[in-house]
Specification:
- The protein is an alpha+beta fold.
- The protein has two domains: 81 residues, Signal transduction histidine kinase, dimerisation/phosphotransfer (DHp) domain (Helix Hairpins); 158 residues, Heat Shock Protein 90 (2-Layer Sandwich).
- 50% of the residues lie in helices and 18% in strands.
- A five-stranded mixed sheet has the order 2-4-5-7-6, with helices on one face. A two-stranded antiparallel ribbon has the order 1-3.
- Helix 4 packs antiparallel against helix 6.
- The chain is globular, with a radius of gyration of 21 Å.
- It starts with a helix and ends in a 9-residue tail after the last strand.
Length: 249
């Protein structure tokens, strides 16, 4: 009975926490949308031309508004995953086509910093069993992180390999500063961020990799990485292989 009560108390506390996160996140969205819209109108100078210093302050406000949007979205995503509210539909997809689609989605973000995204190597008939939207979310998380930490005019390179029978892998290599060894064991924890001035300057919620790990595990896949200080980082996602013919079933 004692164990049962303790278990029930733990589950109740978890539900309260999850409900709180969901409620606060939803309540923040409405006013934040209004703030973002107003800032956008001011940046477009619909009320008239603005002094340079005012435009600079608006840019700071708009950037932080966007960061808050990302935080709210990440909080909602992690809450849904933990609560098992995310529905996955696993189907066969061409992994090469998915990677190219993700590159197309994130290229504007890279171009803004002079960073090129490319698929350097792939395989013939590289089909995987996955949920397309959730996989693109996971891969986009890795690509945006790689862009964030790569130097201006750098490159983010993707490769598709088959590490073993029945498994395909897509790797994302950046040219960033690498991940401190002391932080690597905590990198997939919620809200985890390396305690460096560069990391704090880059921003982020500390939820992206935790969300990606949850997504991949729910799709019968995995995530891993290798990194050395000054040598950049390589993150990879694995998924079960599928056959092209399955797509017509």
């Amino acid at each position: 009975m004692v164990v049962s009560r303790g278990y029930l108390c733990t589950k109740k506390a978890e539900r309260i926490k999850q409900n709180f996160i969901a409620t606060v996140s939803h309540e923040l969205r409405t006013p934040l949308t209004s703030i973002t819209g107003a800032l956008s109108l001011l940046e477009k100078e619909v009320v008239g031309e603005l002094p340079v210093n005012v435009r600079q302050m608006l840019k700071v406000a708009a950037n932080n508004s966007q960061r808050l949007h990302l935080l709210i979205n990440d909080l909602l995503d992690i809450e849904k995953l933990v609560s098992d509210k995310v529905h996955f539909v696993l189907k066969p997809y061409d992994l090469t086509a998915l990677v190219k689609e993700a590159i197309l989605m994130n290229s504007p973000l890279g171009e803004a910093q002079g960073i090129t995204l490319s698929l350097a190597a792939t395989l013939e008939n590289a089909w995987v069993l996955t949920d397309k939207d959730r996989f693109l979310q996971a891969l986009s998380n890795l690509q945006s992180n790689a862009i964030k930490y790569s130097p201006a005019n750098g490159q983010v390179t993707m490769t598709i390999t088959q590490p073993k029978e029945g498994v395909l892998c897509v790797a994302v290599q950046d040219q960033g500063p690498g991940i401190p060894e002391s932080f690597q064991s905590r990198i997939f924890e919620k809200f985890a961020q390396a305690d460096t001035s560069d990391t704090r300057k880059k921003g982020g919620t500390g939820l992206g990799l935790a969300i990606t790990k949850q997504l991949m595990e729910r799709m019968q896949g995995s995530i891993g990485f290798i990194s050395e200080a000054g040598q950049g980082s390589c993150f990879w996602l694995t998924l079960p292989a599928a056959t092209q013919v399955d797509n017509s079933v």
